[in-house]
């Protein structure tokens, strides 16, 4: 079968980095072709090359029989290539329908009714209840992702690139998305599917290509490979174990929350021991992130008390929470976790400015020492600490956010979706880091929508539903059905 898209010996260079190294690949008509690789493997660069966002230094791109030395966004879209990026590309002030139909022209006047009917039909196919008139800024993260997918499939496309499309979706929403993918495949659309979730690859993909350090490693039929082979090809090394556990156990209470209300949450109470990894489960909208923001001082607490080492503390602001020893790795790293236009070292030392300043001046040597330390601890891939964070891969951006929090010497760290959009190798590093922190007596609250991750890493799991804690499950009682029952408030 002749390929719909081929790349031949494509090379793309950035300062100090070979992002694509003499890369060649074929994509066949009507297949779901998965791309796997650690963060920094070159997947994002490959997407941008295909979509015309960047131009390679050399090589050939062949699409539907036409040869190009480079594509442009206009050529790419006109030829039938659409991309759903990992980060949202929506206009918040416009409605869902306006975003889906953005850029389309139908005469001199805007036909809002037609746009809303078109959006409604796509939402019905997703079995998702979204009002097409709702401004995007009022939608949840999951519903924004649905709008992104709807926007892409509303266009006539022959090749659809999906970059981590399931990251913010619930199980039901992922199932609905897979139905759309299967329908598009039956219609002859080629789909390039990028995901770090192995189960998705084996559920939806026909073939899978592994990338490493900007180079092609291998293409395999999904039916003829397994998880272990793919992981080995991705990381080029054996992993010690999927879910490590802390080596030490502590009995002392470290953190206590009593009757906390605010931000939609009601009467939240729980305790956290030193060195404990406490999982927090719940469906989208259950109130987990809202609770994290209350405890970190990002949103106002209406009432309730917070104790650290049996001493009541104030978390009236983020600065106060940091000073009390509470750290947060937020769900949205780009908007809330780091400063994209600043350097890596600037970001890592940002929350520690008070500790490394004297007489109002930052001690440059100490700031550099902290940044170097956490760059090495977290294995941040970068040619220089002066590299702007926006130029890093998603996984390395996440590591910068974690480094910034670790640098404050927090006693309690809240990880909100810590491995979303991160490859299996980086996940393993973060899991091992969490265990190392727990062995040092640091308490960890881990909010995750990945059930396997929750069951694998937690010593105990709290389940939230509708802004309340609906259940608590000890490790000896871990059971996916029980957690989902609590999460559904049944």
Structure description:
The chain has 490 residues and is an alpha/beta fold. It is built from 17 helices and 22 strands. The strands form five sheets. It has a six-stranded mixed β-sheet with strand order 6-7-8-3-9-10, sandwiched between helices. α12 (344-350) packs across α13 (364-378) and α12 (344-350) packs parallel to α14 (394-406). It is globular, with a radius of gyration of 23 Å.
Q: Short description, anyone?
A:
The chain has 490 residues and is α/β, with parallel strands linked by helices. Helix content is 34%, strand content 26%. It has helices spanning 43-51, 73-78, 96-100, 112-126, 141-153, 171-186, 198-204, 227-235, 288-295, 318-324, 333-337, 344-350, 364-378, 394-406, 424-439, 451-457, 480-487, and strands at residues 5-14, 17-27, 32-36, 58-63, 66-68, 81-84, 159-163, 190-194, 207-212, 215-221, 253-262, 265-273, 277-282, 303-308, 311-313, 326-329, 357-358, 361-362, 412-416, 443-447, 460-465, 468-474.
Tag the structure with descriptive keywords.
490 residues; alpha/beta; Rossmann fold; 2 domains; six-stranded mixed beta sheet; 17 helices; 22 strands; globular
List strands and helices in order, with pairings.
Layout: E1 5-14, E2 17-27, E3 32-36, H1 43-51, E4 58-63, E5 66-68, H2 73-78, E6 81-84, H3 96-100, H4 112-126, H5 141-153, E7 159-163, H6 171-186, E8 190-194, H7 198-204, E9 207-212, E10 215-221, H8 227-235, E11 253-262, E12 265-273, E13 277-282, H9 288-295, E14 303-308, E15 311-313, H10 318-324, E16 326-329, H11 333-337, H12 344-350, E17 357-358, E18 361-362, H13 364-378, H14 394-406, E19 412-416, H15 424-439, E20 443-447, H16 451-457, E21 460-465, E22 468-474, H17 480-487
Helix pairs in contact: 12-13, 12-14, 13-14
